[in-house]
Amino acid sequence: MQVSEGDVFADLHTHTNASDGVHSPAALVRRAVQRGIQVLSVTDHDTVAGIAAAAEAAREEGIHFLTGIELSVTLDGEEIHLLAYGFDPAHDGLQRHLSAMKTARRERAWSIVERLRTLGVEVVDDRLRADIESSSAVGRPHVAAALVRAGYVDTPEEAFDHYLGRGQPGYVSKPAFAAENALDLIHDAGGVGALAHPGHWTSGRQIRKLVERGLDGLETIHPSHDESLYGYYERLADGYDVVTTGGSDYHGRTDAEECSFGRVGMSQSAWERFRSILA
Q1: Do domains 10-94+176-275 and 97-164 have the same CATH topology?
Q2: 3-state secondary structure 212-246
Q3: Which residues, given as ranges, of the chain have pLDDT below 50?
Q4: 10-94+176-275 adopts what CATH topology?
Q5: Global pTM exceeds 0.85
Q6: Which residues are bridge partners to 195 per DSSP?
Q7: Which of 27, 126, 213, 275 is the most exposed place for a label (fewest CB within 10 A)?
Q8: pLDDT, tens digit (0-9, with 9 covering 90-100), for 78-90
Q9: What gap in Å lies between CA 129 and CA 168, rounded to an integer?
Q10: Residue 4: predicted pLDDT
């Protein structure tokens, strides 16, 4: 799905090098301005480390910045992602959770490295070691990049297909964080929660369960959603009386993402409808 009702005005799903994106927060903001984006949210995975720099860059560039994050949570034993917006990034409960997640992500990364080592796959170089020890949200993409650098695979996608994806020998699951607890935390921090790219993993039954537990919105606009999925989730959102959101899910890693940035997102009217629920 490219855009709702006109030109892209807002992109509420982007990533920086504070998690698994390529660009610094300031560089991402500059690229957003070049693409004509007027409202930007940085939604790094399980970290708010890039928010202050992105917000400052947005002020300097004269665009609106919305605090955001993408939280890894579990529902019915499966991992899903929740996007949170408009919260206080300094909220005590949120900071405690993110600190615990940072530690868990580091431990998970070393566990992945050890599993790969048992296969005779040695991937630790200075770059990966620095990523694991210093990144605010180290994850499988960092290990995938190391596999490419070491010559075991040609692309990060191949790394996931052969080593890091669910069911592959290097896969290690994340710690469980129940979706209902995540929604409570988002609301306690003054924010709203939306289900990220529901076409990736969730059924209508699961969405209903999330709405019953306090979900505020659905990400209907996403590069992975075609017109049919976009329409389906828009109708679901309308039926449940929740807001809709959208964005490019830009990391800066692929040509496809470059094509989506500035072309996949929300129109001004869609943004204004979403904005109405923010505190």
Answers
A1: no
A2: HCCCCEEEEECCCCCHHHHHHHHHHHHHHCCEEEE
A3: 5
A4: TIM Barrel (3.20.20)
A5: yes
A6: 82, 218
A7: 126
A8: 899 999 999 999 9
A9: 22
A10: 53
Q: Torsion angle of alpha carbons 96, 64, 237, 216, nearest 10°?
A: 30
Question: How far is the C-alpha of 75 from the C-alpha of 176, rounded, in Å?
Answer: 9
Give the integer Cα–Cα distance in Å for 170 and 132: 16
Task: Using CB atoms within 10 Å of the CB of residue 96, give its burial: 0 to 12 exposed, 13 to 18 middle, 19+ buried.
Answer: exposed
The residues, any chain, with a CB within 8 Å of residue 193's CB and separated by 6 or more, are 82, 83, 84, 182, 183, 186, 187, 214, 215, 216, 217
pLDDT in tens, 90-143: 999 999 999 999 999 999 999 999 999 999 999 999 999 999 998 888 989 999
Question: DSSP class of residue 99?
Answer: H
* Geometric angle at alpha carbon 70, from 28 and 236, rounded to 5°: 115
Q: What is the mean pLDDT of the chain?
A: 94
Task: Work out the burial of residue 93: count CB atoms within 10 Å of its CB; fewer than 13 is exposed, 13-18 middle, 19 or more buried.
Answer: exposed
Whole-number Å distance between alpha carbons of 222 and 220:
6
* Domain parsing of the chain, residue ranges: 10-94+176-275, 97-164
Q: Any idea what DSSP says for residue 81? A: E
> How does pLDDT run across 182-196, given as a tens digit for each residue?
999 999 999 999 999
CATH classification code of 97-164: 1.10.150
DSSP state at residue 89: T
Q: What is the DSSP string of 141-193?
A: HHHHHHHHHTTS-SSHHHHIIIIISTTSTT--PPPP-BHHHHHHHHHHTT-EE
CA distance 21 to 230: 25
| Coil/strand/helix, residue 33 | helix
Q: Which residue has the tokens 């698994």?
A: 20
CA torsion angle 79 233 137 35 (round to 10): 160
List the structure tokens of 68.
Answer: 């955001």
